[in-house]
Specification:
This protein is mainly alpha-helical and about 190 residues long. The chain has 7 helices and no strands. This is Phosphatase PAP2 family protein.
């Protein structure tokens, strides 16, 4: 399994260095893709259509994001995977990271956001977030920081977190109403 993972990772990363424009784009996506996704989620707060549902989904996306990253921290207690650039699989385009390779926090965060929107029936923004998440994931492998399985593992963690939040955080529940009320008082005044 490792050999397939290394081959796929090397194949995606082997394009790195062939185009300065593509290199710059992928480095940029990797660096600010997740913060831009978070801003895009936050910007949905003022969307007029079905405000109550929309705001519930925004909270669910935020909780999914945070829960997914928390799961990653638990995984890191048991898994310490060497980065593909340290294993000689990839050519690194950015500075080395002190973080273990598995799972990818970028993939977790991006997938959690997309999954939260899709699981809550917000198909159109969910598909846009999914496209952005896939771009973030590809960029992580392209620039040499992660194996393909690192981003797939991170994506699964994010999706699992979104599913758990979907099951436990109900629209219209007391906690949902309380948090939305506090945020409305803060942001809509």
């Amino acid at each position: 399994m490792y050999e397939l993972d290394a081959k796929l990772t090397h194949a995606l990363n082997s394009v790195a260095g062939t185009s300065q424009l593509l290199n710059s784009l992928m480095i940029w996506v990797s660096a600010i893709g997740v913060p831009l996704l978070v801003l895009a989620v936050a910007g949905q707060w003022w969307r007029r259509a079905d405000r109550q549902h929309n705001r519930h989904v925004l909270l669910a996306a935020g909780f999914s994001f945070l829960l997914g990253l928390a799961f990653n921290q638990l995984i890191l207690l048991f898994v310490h995977r060497m980065s593909p650039y340290d294993a000689g699989v990839t050519h690194l385009l950015i500075a080395r990271s002190a973080n273990p390779s598995f799972p990818s926090d970028h993939a977790t965060a991006a997938a959690a956001i997309a999954a939260a929107f899709l699981l809550h029936g917000m198909r159109k923004p969910g598909l846009w977030f999914l496209a952005a998440a896939l771009l973030v994931m590809v960029s992580c492998v392209y620039i040499g920081t992660h194996y393909v399985s690192d981003v797939l593992g991170g994506a699964l963690t994010g999706i699992f977190a979104a599913m758990l939040v979907r099951a436990l955080f109900r629209k219209g529940a007391r906690a949902d109403q309380w948090i939305i009320g506090r945020l409305e008082a803060l942001l809509d005044s």
